[in-house]
């Protein structure tokens, strides 16, 4: 309400152009601004809180009226294993249950979760491999994990995938352009 008792109508956001090419997400889930790592805690919290996607799979950070589109070094999420064994996204949110596990042609592990597709942080690979099991229930050898040869992780079979097909299969745009 204004001081004279009449209702105030909200001011519309100013028209500002979207921003491209400034913000990126690397393979370890680190934000980068013009290639430089973001280290300021407040800015990191802001980026994590305002990270979202458009229907066409372009990921962005909403900065007031402006969308700052994010170039992804691989997937929209980078996953880590939490202390309780659950998966966390690089934004520190629970990723939810896994529905598929892939090993790409470069040996990277990708996990489809309720939050979306995520690259497993490479620092988590030893723990991931320790949880992989062969068809007989025994610990899987690394060669079998990389080949997706009858290996499962937490009951989900490892499936091969080509890196070039990940974005199309999981519906995201790695490098949004105007």
TrEMBL record:
InterPro entries: DUF2944 (IPR021332). This is DUF2946 family protein. It comes from Azoarcus sp. (strain BH72).
